[in-house]
Recover the amino acids of this structure.
């Protein structure tokens, strides 16, 4: 039986090294060695080039809470501009999200974006 968690990570273009460390963590901490892959943004709407990078994993029996706890440790260049979003199969009504500095929506996520202004 599967237990699926949809996971998305949104980063700036210059977070490849941190994503490599995150994928190494996933590989080393998951018996299935599931990792994130980039999603093409070529089909994004609007009239400009989509600049963020979006990474995804449809994880099965994955320690996503462990990943959320480790998320601030991957050496993000711009931690307040990186986000991990999780939707757990057994809670379809809610998304959980964390920034690269460890803040979550419950920790006052919206306030933290003021640091980018």
């Amino acid at each position: 039986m599967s237990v699926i968690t949809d996971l998305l990570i949104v980063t700036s273009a210059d977070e490849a090294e941190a994503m490599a460390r995150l994928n190494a963590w996933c590989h080393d901490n998951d018996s299935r060695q599931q990792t994130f892959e980039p999603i093409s943004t070529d089909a994004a709407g609007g009239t400009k080039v989509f600049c963020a990078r979006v990474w995804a994993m449809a994880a099965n029996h994955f320690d996503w809470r462990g990943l959320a706890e480790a998320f601030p440790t991957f050496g993000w260049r711009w931690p307040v501009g990186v986000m991990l979003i999780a939707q757990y199969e057994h809670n379809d009504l809610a998304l959980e999200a964390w920034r690269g500095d460890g803040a979550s929506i419950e920790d006052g996520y919206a306030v933290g974006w003021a640091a980018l202004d």
